[in-house]
Amino acid sequence: MRIPFIDLKPAIEEARPLWESRLSEMFERGQFILGEQVAGFEAEFARAMGARYAVGTGTGTAALELCLRAAGVTERRMEVITTPLTAPFTGLAIRAAGASPRFADVNPETLLLDVDDTARRATRRTAALMPVHLYGRPCELDRWRDLAKQLGAVLVQDACQAHGALYRGRPLAAWSQYVAYSFYPTKNLGALGDAGAVVTGSARIRRRLAMLRDGGRAGGHVSRLAGVNSRLDEMQACYLRAFLTYLPEWNRQRQRLAALYDEALRDCPGVRLLDRTGSVHHLYVIRVRSREKLRRYLASHGIGTAVHYPVPLHLQPAFQDCGARRGDLPVAERACREVISLPLYPHLPEQAAAEVAGRIRDFYLRGRC
């Protein structure tokens, strides 16, 4: 059985009637930038995420950048602490806003940015905290909110992998005014290209974000702020409005598959499961011994895997000036040598997930490592 790491085609086909209808409306109106589809999606997405407002952007990276710009965190002397165990776009968004990325270590059980280590590394220059809801598992937002208040810092949530997640039964937007999402095609809610959004409960912040994404304009041709050009595309909004309808069910399917993996791999030697409390399971990641041998073994049986992420940000050339060297963040560095992402998407057959887990058990129980 060939089992790809991800297959988007079934989801696209399931939602076809809805996105075809939206595209027809768009072509009929003939407006392709900041039109009815974007406005409709913003209202629907805000409601789905439990927020008052949403502002669509061109990418998830831009969503993070615009959060910092809206909050005034735009100078190099201003530091933003985030996790080294994430996609580089988190750190690049901080740089794009004009601020300086800094890193703290992660919790070994969840691999989320560690609150206590962040508190120890914070300084008077810490202007913002940017925890990442990694793999779809929400961070301890009550503690992050308290730490941000203590430091006088802005709390910006990187929720680019956490569409539909709640923390303590409350929407992510209930815990801070800046929550950024990505709609990269492989996300729980994905476009068919790049797209992103920020959700907030503040009308003032919504207005500022809307200006910033559109060159600092508030209609017309005069830039009132030093903005960027990063608007959610009308065509992507058509797809997103269609896929948003299915998000709750698709998240439930992800949860069922993750539970199957958990049960099958819980006592497997060589495998360490993560704490997934509250996760919407964007990715199913485990920590393993002899990762590259395991990946080759699974590939020989037609099973695709991935690594999220192989190199922590503080060891990447783009962030070599961020004050951390090899050995400074040992938990993240070790995790990057051990993590492996298994196939997980809403239309993955349960028997396929069982096959993946069975092959992993075979690899370790038969001493193939």
Features:
3-stranded antiparallel β-sheet; 369 residues; Aspartate Aminotransferase, domain 1; 13% strand; alpha/beta; globular; Aspartate Aminotransferase, domain 2; 2 domains; 7-stranded mixed β-sheet; 12 helices
Account of the 3D structure:
With 369 residues, the protein is of the alpha/beta class. The protein folds into two domains: 9-242, Type I PLP-dependent aspartate aminotransferase-like (Major domain) (Aspartate Aminotransferase, domain 2, 3-Layer(aba) Sandwich); 247-365, Aspartate Aminotransferase, domain 1, CATH 3.90.1150. Helix content is 41%, strand content 13%. It is built from twelve helices and twelve strands. It has helices at 9-14, 16-29, 36-48, 60-70, 88-97, 115-121, 141-151, 203-213, 234-265, 291-300, 330-338, 350-365; strands at 53-57, 79-82, 100-103, 126-130, 154-158, 166-167, 170-171, 178-182, 196-200, 271-272, 284-288, 339-342. The strands form three sheets. A seven-stranded mixed β-sheet has the order 1-9-8-5-4-2-3, with helices on both faces. The chain has a three-stranded antiparallel β-sheet with strand order 10-11-12. Helix 4 packs across helix 8 (203-213) and helix 9 (234-265) crosses helix 12 (350-365). The longest helix has 32 residues, at 234-265. The mean pLDDT is 97.
Write the layout of secondary structure elements.
Blueprint: H1 9-14, H2 16-29, H3 36-48, E1 53-57, H4 60-70, E2 79-82, H5 88-97, E3 100-103, H6 115-121, E4 126-130, H7 141-151, E5 154-158, E6 166-167, E7 170-171, E8 178-182, E9 196-200, H8 203-213, H9 234-265, E10 271-272, E11 284-288, H10 291-300, H11 330-338, E12 339-342, H12 350-365
Parallel strand pairs: 2-3, 2-4, 4-5, 5-8
Antiparallel strand pairs: 1-9, 6-7, 8-9, 10-11, 11-12
Helix pairs in contact: 2-9, 3-9, 4-5, 4-8, 9-12
